[in-house]
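User: My collaborator sent over this chain with a note saying "see what the structure looks like." That's all I know about it. Can you take a look?
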Amino acid sequence: MAKYFQFISDELHPMHIILRITIATVFSIWGMILRFKTLANRELWLDEINQLSLTLEPLKPLWLRDYPRKDITSFPGDYLLTYPFVKLFGASKLVAIPHAIVTMLGFYLLYVICRRYFMTTIGYLVAFPLMCFHGQLIWHALEIRPYAVLPTLALACFYFGKHVIGKPDRDNTHILTKCAVGLLLVITILFHAFGIYIVSFVLLFHMLNHSKEESFLDVIRRNAKFLSTIAAIVLLPWIWFTAGILSIPHKEFNVFAYIPNPLSDLYGFSTAIVGNLLGFRRLYFLLLFGMLAAFIIPHQERYPQIKFFLTLIVFPVLCILISAMITNYWFLPRQFVWVMPLFCFFLGWCWDSVIHSFSEKIASSNR
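Assistant: Without extra context I'll predict from the sequence alone. Here is the result:
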């Protein structure tokens, strides 16, 4: 048993490197097949048809805010992304091509994030099946709506955000890297109304996680110029687009028509949120042991994981819920679809830490 735990936690073993690449590749291909099959077996629904009908018209100046905005969360990002493909293929499912490319990129981003954080193969065996079979991610991946892109934007911001928030080395972060990451953050914020949540909570996590090496205020001061530059670029366009969306007259919806009200049914609300975050009923067992054990068992990643859970899972869902309540719009799983791939990674990270902790304790007891 001791040799087994030492083997599965040996992150530099050549067999593990090959195995992890194989796991990521197999489940990524499997996941894409499921997504393509779902698109092939369904008809385009009302919101997709509305977006396509408006995109078939001549390109609309963005400053007029006259682009698809069926619900209160749409910015012009997906309109611009799909516009060339609508012109090429018309109102057909081939318009989902850019979303397919973005989804494949999301699987790759999950792999490089796992490679950065995981120390065992077990983490890959948890994160990738969850991502592959996730019902919400399968449905929205090739949907002709902005929700197809948000999961990949969240993974990209999480991966690259660390490059600019982390303490710089002696040579400092190259200016081109900061510019590239800054461009990603700007695109994310202006792609969709919830892009501001993605960027804000990702950067908050990296700043909090880095504050173990220096004070939180020092982290903010060191990144103040970068963050203020991003804010200066996006502030006016974000306010303009948001004001346009909020000015749309719409009837008041029952906010809790699809997810129970936590004030009257906390258990129903909690199970609905957890169920949508996990996305595949047969893998529910991964939550109970993995997350609880990771929070209870002392290990070096425990506090970063608690910070991750709060800043990138709990707070975003609560903010989206509050946004729905303020605007009297439905509170829907698609609104926090970008949290779901981060949750898949998070559970893999929890299992990875628990297994690695066991292997270290067994190894130390055998010395």
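A starting point for your reply to your collaborator: Confidence is low (pLDDT under 50) at residues 1-5.
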